[in-house]
């Protein structure tokens, strides 16, 4: 038996318990009693004072107003309750001080209204405690099972196929990192796939965030591409690629928007074999080509195997190798030219107005402030498909300069490859690609595609591999950050899409933008005849003649000899032997050695021949056939290359042993 200090059995324990339970409910009653004492003392001090009446009235108004302002951070219900209580109490004290606490109905109001207000606050305390208990237990013990005991789940926001619940962790004991580690266990407890449970930390707190649960995978149904989402719109409008797992559209933006505070971006499209990277690229390219104020320069080492129906709509199509080297050099040349034009016309970044004729005096390049009427500059998308091939040929930093500088010039770089690891792409290039569309991959490659914080929030492309083509995560400016770990799926392209793509390419030929003089001039200054711009409707690109092993023209009806030998008369006598003709083998130091004047003429004609054929990036290996025809040695060619570079006819590239031909007009 427990004895209290006064000798009664358990009296001390019961009294302490009751006092402990009553403490939260005592303050309103103490205030009620204090108000009565204040009214009696006030009447004794100021029984009939007009000045006291004015002062007390002003004090009551100020106190009520101050309570309302102080409760700004509280809920509306609590704010109103507090203001009413203070106003009623201060009004009663004022009346009691002036008329007396027992005058008229003042004492009755005190005895009935005071307890009513005190009880209302007691009820509020009880309801608040019960609500907290319900919130703490609303997870049904789920958090305790997954190692997050004492964490509290708030009122959940229920949307179609999406539940978002605020989560508050135990202070000093748990962090947002603990939730990220527990996501797989939460998915297991709810019998859902790992990708259906995500956690978005609160940027201002290390123990708060939102737990997002998507109970049904709406991506299981394949949706076929039926056409672009906004034919004739601006490239500044969102590009629709598919949908998220809760049915919301999956969109990205390429140009920036100064009003929305969104920066221009480059995009990395990454995914393993069979992950649906080709369909994802088609979704993005068809959206781009359907806009009125953009041109596309496209490199595809696979000879446009997937993109052939769209090729007529491209402003420049390169098939890898030397053609891609020229395209890269053209983009590098276009960056300063376009930046200079934008700056001269008062644009800090590319906006849709820059693609229109410059009839606004606010965007004039003239010093007198009048409208200049310059042709507009469309947005430029430089796309490198199967970029691993280009990176192997040109080095892992082939795109570094473009990635770091192109955004300010109204150029967006699209790089597509299977594995964006650091042994293929330089860290500088990867860091300069702010956006990524990450498809299924090897689990070990997840960190190459997505930022660590997105992976920690629940993104897991390694779980798909190549088993779910088109499933992806999108990280890009303009997309809410809580969407980053949400899986989406792009639309599928089938044979039924081919006629639609062909019509889209024809629309782009008739209605799409053409390269502006500044961009076209920069490209031509580097590429020469290799850059022709988009072909007009009905115009065919120049095709190369293919000759089989027997020397026959594969298109038939052509010459049965090499084109360079067509002028030779078979009946003409062979020329007399010259010194060095006994060793015409390429690579040997002996061979025909022309005079200096003849050497310059021969080499100039070779460069002109390469330039006319659009071969603007050359090296010694490109002269092998030419040297065989003219019986010249390799050392002779290397010497001529250096001389041509000194004369300004060639420029060194980033690749050792490779030179870029400076077009004749530019060199002059």
UniProtKB/TrEMBL annotation:
Sorted UniProt keywords: ATP-binding, Membrane, Nucleotide-binding, Transmembrane, Transmembrane helix
PROSITE patterns: FTSK (PS50901)
Positions of the FtsK domain: 247-448
Region spans: Disordered: 573-596
InterPro entries assigned to the protein according to its UniProt record, in alphabetical order: FtsK/SpoIIIE/SftA (IPR050206), FtsK_dom (IPR002543), P-loop_NTPase (IPR027417)
One Gene Ontology molecular-function label: ATP binding
TM region(s), chain numbering: 50-71, 83-103
Gene3D superfamilies for this protein: P-loop containing nucleotide triphosphate hydrolases
Acidic residues: bias regions: 573-582
Origin: domain of life: Bacteria
Binding-site residues, ATP: 271-278
Protein name: Sporulation protein SsgA
Organism: Streptomyces aquilus
């Amino acid at each position: 038996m427990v004895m209290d200090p006064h000798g009664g059995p358990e009296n001390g324990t019961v009294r302490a318990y009751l006092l402990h339970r009553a403490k939260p409910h005592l303050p309103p009653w103490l205030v009620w009693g204090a108000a009565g004492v204040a009214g009696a003392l006030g009447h004794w001090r100021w029984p009939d004072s007009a000045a006291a009446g004015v002062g007390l009235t002003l004090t009551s108004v100020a106190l009520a107003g101050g309570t309302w302002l102080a409760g700004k951070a509280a809920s509306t219900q609590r704010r109103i309750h507090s203001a009413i209580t203070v106003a009623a109490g201060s009004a009663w004290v004022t009346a009691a001080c002036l008329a007396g606490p027992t005058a008229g109905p003042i004492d009755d109001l005190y005895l009935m209204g005071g307890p009513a207000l005190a009880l209302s606050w007691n009820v509020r305390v009880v309801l608040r405690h019960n609500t907290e208990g319900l919130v703490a237990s609303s997870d049904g013990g789920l958090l305790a099972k997954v190692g997050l005991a004492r964490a509290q789940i708030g009122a959940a926001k229920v949307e179609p196929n999406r539940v978002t619940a605020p989560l508050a962790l135990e202070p000093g004991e748990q962090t947002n990192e603990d939730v990220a580690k527990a996501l797989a266990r939460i998915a297991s407890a709810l019998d859902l796939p790992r990708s259906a449970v995500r956690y978005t930390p609160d940027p201002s707190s290390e123990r708060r965030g939102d737990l997002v649960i998507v109970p049904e995978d709406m991506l299981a149904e394949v949706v076929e591409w039926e056409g672009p989402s906004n034919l004739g719109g601006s490239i500044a409008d969102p590009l629709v690629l598919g949908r998220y797992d809760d049915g919301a559209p999956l969109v990205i933006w390429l140009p920036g928007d100064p009003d929305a505070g969104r920066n221009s971006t480059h995009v990395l499209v990454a995914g393993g074999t069979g992950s649906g990277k080709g369909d994802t690229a088609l979704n993005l390219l068809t959206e781009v080509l359907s806009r009125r104020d953009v041109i596309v320069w496209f490199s595809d080492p696979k000879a446009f195997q997937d993109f052939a129906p769209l090729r007529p709509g491209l402003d420049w199509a390169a098939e890898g190798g030397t053609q891609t080297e020229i395209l890269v050099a053209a983009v590098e040349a276009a960056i300063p030219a376009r930046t200079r034009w934008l700056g001269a016309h008062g644009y800090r970044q590319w906006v849709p107005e820059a693609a229109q004729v410059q009839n606004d005096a606010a965007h004039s390049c003239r010093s007198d402030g009048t409208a200049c009427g310059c042709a507009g500059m469309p947005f430029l998308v430089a796309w490198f498909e199967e970029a691993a091939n280009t990176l192997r040929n040109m080095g892992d930093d082939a795109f570094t300069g473009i990635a770091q500088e192109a955004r300010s010039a109204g150029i967006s770089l699209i790089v597509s490859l299977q594995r964006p690891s650091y042994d293929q792409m330089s860290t500088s290039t990867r860091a300069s690609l702010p956006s990524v569309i990450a498809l299924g991959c090897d689990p070990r490659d997840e960190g190459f595609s997505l930022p660590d914080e997105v992976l920690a929030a629940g993104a897991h492309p390694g779980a798909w591999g190549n088993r779910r083509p088109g499933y992806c995560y999108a990280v890009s400016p303009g997309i809410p950050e809580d969407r980053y770990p949400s899986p989406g799926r792009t639309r599928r392209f089938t044979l039924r899409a081919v006629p639609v793509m062909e019509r889209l390419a024809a629309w782009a030929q008739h209605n799409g933008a053409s390269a502006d003089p500044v961009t076209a001039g920069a490209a031509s200054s580097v590429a020469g005849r290799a850059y022709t711009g988009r072909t007009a409707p009905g115009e065919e690109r120049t095709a190369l003649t293919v000759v089989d092993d027997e020397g026959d023209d594969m298109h038939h009806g052509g010459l049965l000899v090499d084109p360079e030998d067509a002028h030779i008369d078979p009946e003409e006598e062979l020329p007399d032997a010259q010194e060095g003709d006994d060793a015409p083998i390429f690579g040997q130091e002996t061979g025909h050695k022309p005079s200096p004047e003849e050497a310059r003429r021969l080499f100039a004609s070779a460069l002109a021949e390469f330039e006319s054929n659009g071969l603007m990036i050359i090296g010694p290996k490109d002269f092998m056939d030419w040297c065989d025809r003219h019986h010249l040695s390799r050392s002779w060619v290397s010497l001529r290359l250096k001389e041509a570079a000194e004369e300004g006819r060639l420029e060194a590239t980033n690749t050792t042993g490779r030179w870029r031909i400076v077009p004749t007009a530019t060199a002059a």
